[in-house]
Design a protein that fits this description.
Chain A: Keywords: Cell membrane, Membrane, Transmembrane, Transmembrane helix, Transport. Chain A: It is found in: Cell membrane. The structure holds two protein chains of two kinds. Chain A is mainly alpha-helical. In chain A, 69% of the residues lie in helices and 0% in strands. Chain A contains 14 helices and no strands. Chain A starts with a helix and ends in a 9-residue tail after the last helix. Chain B starts with a helix and ends with a helix. The chains are: A mainly alpha, B mainly alpha.
């Protein structure tokens, strides 16, 4: 009955495995080696230079600017996005003792819109929202009597302006995610707590939060990985790119510039290795710190 | 567990009607104010772009937040043809469509074999694919550029399609493997009894059964691929084969010099509306699919 089993398995795996090996696995493996060479792409010659590229990274002010900005994004973006999404999700689902607020579905649909736009659309759109003279933001602010700013040209504001766009574009997805998690909490538990006289905030802190903890953890990893990137928005929105006075320089931008503008492929690969270890560290840290006892609903 | 349990136990005796119920209506007002406020933050920029796409350049510069005096559809026509948004849009459809079909086909083939067949090295293959999720694309970028160039695929749609597919495979395989594992075995057994071949069982029995999972991961992949910017920027340098994301970014710079703001807003609107419209129509399936993808 199962003749040709081996041929079937091999036949199904061959093409995807070859593609994956050539286009994904081999580039990843090559990157680690290239990071140890001075390869500049033009000649086939690539000298092995050991850890020289990494030593050079330590003296590269743009790398430090990128590291500082990615670090700040890592501190700000996940926390703000998750808090905002938790608040909105709680308002949507927990109102009327767990039945959800009226029109919750419509709110969720609207909140989800930015998730559907490609990052290039978002970047171009917000570049114009931030335009000093005829942009939307300054127009709205001036209507309230607040003086407008040149958001993307001011070194003190540029990175915050970019971070606000990341929060704007990612909150909706996590609202939907957290709503789904909160809706799966049995209503009896919430009602019981209400009957007990527990206030909204107590219910949220002692019951809801522990039950959506795993989702928050997933959100933190996704948002953190996104915060270590930021390439597309910065590249599209800010001058240079990299902003005034390296204000919005990110590591990915440095990598791209070193590789495809300066042709320093070995050096750029070293930056890639740094990015890899940062991502890995983040994932391990988040998994570790939040591996607590799991709460089960009886 | 203990927290919840204790609370359940403590609730056993019926309590008197709680006094806090009376607070609910007043809170309700504040709740809606907050919810509407975020809704406005989300939609205002989008609406502004749509409204601006109908204005003249003079109107955009002098009264950027008023309504247009007339619906100038010619802005849209100009963006579609002169600014090549139409071509970029079609390029995106070809590349994303091709990559999506290929990803779904190859991803489900690999996942099915890994989930339903015991063979030597199956665990290794599984972990090879799953490991791909742990690496940032930036790490591969430089070598990938040279691999693609060596294959003669630089700047071609075929090149983008195979690269997109390869980088979408890890999550697709990961997601679908657990999905195929969860499907009942009995139907497949019956099909084998009836003399169905291995691939026959896959295409005629298992794939239809996996439809909910395929829809989830399909939507997830579509949005991910549609969102691509770094890969086309690196691997697709020829302006004629630009995808929408690249075209729009270049256009934003160029139209700034040409002072064709209305054309740019029209281009933006053209790139936003189809996906938003599709979402509003299919939103139930889309959100269900996407959150299923993230919860797993």
């Amino acid at each position: 009955m199962r003749h040709g089993r081996r041929r079937f398995v091999a036949g199904f795996l061959a093409l995807p495995l070859v593609m994956y090996a050539v286009l994904v696995l081999s580039p990843y493996a090559q990157a680690f080696y290239l990071a140890l060479t001075d390869w500049r792409g033009v000649s086939a010659r690539a000298e092995f230079v050991g850890l020289d590229n990494f030593a050079r990274l330590l003296d590269d002010p743009q790398m430090w600017a990128g590291l500082r900005n990615n670090g700040l994004m890592l501190l700000v973006i996940p926390v703000v996005t998750i808090l905002l999404a938790l608040l909105l999700a709680a308002l949507l689902t927990l109102g009327r003792s767990g039945r959800g607020v009226r029109g919750a579905g419509a709110y969720r649909v609207v909140y989800f819109f930015p998730q559907l736009l490609s990052v290039a659309v978002i970047g171009v759109l917000w570049q114009f929202v931030y335009t000093p003279n005829n942009g939307l933001l300054n127009g709205v602010l001036e209507a309230f009597g607040i003086a407008g700013r040149s958001w993307l040209a001011d070194p003190a504001l540029a990175l915050w302006a970019v971070m606000a766009v990341v929060v704007w574009s990612s909150t909706g997805f996590y609202v939907v995610l957290f709503c789904a998690a909160m809706q799966s909490i049995p209503r009896e538990i919430l009602e019981a707590a209400h009957v007990d006289g527990a206030g909204r905030f107590t219910v949220f802190r002692t019951i809801v939060l522990p039950l959506v903890r795993e989702n928050i953890q997933v959100a933190y990893i996704y948002l953190g990985i996104g915060a270590l990137d930021g390439f597309a928005l910065v590249q599209i929105m800010t001058v240079g790119p990299g902003g005034p006075d390296n204000a919005t320089e990110v590591l990915g931008l440095g990598l791209y510039r070193n590789a495809f503008t300066y042709g320093q492929f070995g050096y750029a690969s070293a930056l890639g290795v740094v990015l890899f270890f940062l991502t890995l560290t983040l994932a391990v840290l988040v998994m570790r710190t939040s591996r607590r006892e799991r709460i089960e609903v009886v | 567990m203990t927290i919840v349990k204790e609370r359940l136990i403590r609730t056993a005796p019926p309590a008197p009607p709680p006094p806090h119920r009376r607070r609910v209506p007043r809170m309700g007002g504040l709740v809606h104010v907050l919810l509407v406020a975020w809704g406005a933050v989300v939609t205002l920029p989008l609406l502004w772009a749509v409204v601006s796409s109908f204005k003249s350049d003079a109107e955009i510069l002098t009264s950027p937040w008023s309504l247009p005096t007339a619906l100038r559809w010619e802005n849209w026509a100009r963006a579609w043809t002169e600014a090549s948004i139409g071509r970029y849009f079609l390029n995106s459809v070809v590349v994303v469509g091709g990559a999506l079909i290929l990803t779904m086909l190859l991803g489900s083939m690999v996942a099915y074999v890994l989930a339903r067949y015991e063979f030597r090295g199956s665990r290794l293959v599984y972990y090879l694919f799953v490991a791909g999720m742990a690496f940032p694309v930036f790490l591969a970028l430089v070598p990938l550029f040279f691999v693609v160039r060596q294959l003669g695929l630089l700047g071609t749609h075929a090149g983008l399609i195979v690269v997109y597919t390869s980088y979408a495979l890890p999550f697709t395989v990961f997601f679908l493997t657990s999905f195929f594992r969860g499907l009942p075995q009995a139907v497949a057994e019956a099909a084998f009894m009836d003399g169905c071949s291995h691939s026959g069982v896959f295409f005629r029995v298992m794939l239809p059964m996996a439809k909910p999972g395929l829809i989830s991961i399909g939507i997830f992949n579509f949005l991910g691929l549609w969102n691509q910017y770094l890969l086309p920027l690196t691997l697709n340098p020829d302006e004629n084969s630009y995808v929408l994301a690249q075209g729009l970014a270049v256009l934003a710079v160029r139209q700034g010099y040409a002072n064709d703001w209305s054309g740019l807003f029209a281009g933006l609107t053209i790139s936003m509306l189809p996906v938003l419209a599709a979402y509003v129509i299919f939103q139930r399936q889309i959100t269900a699919g996407l959150t299923a993808g993230a919860v797993r």
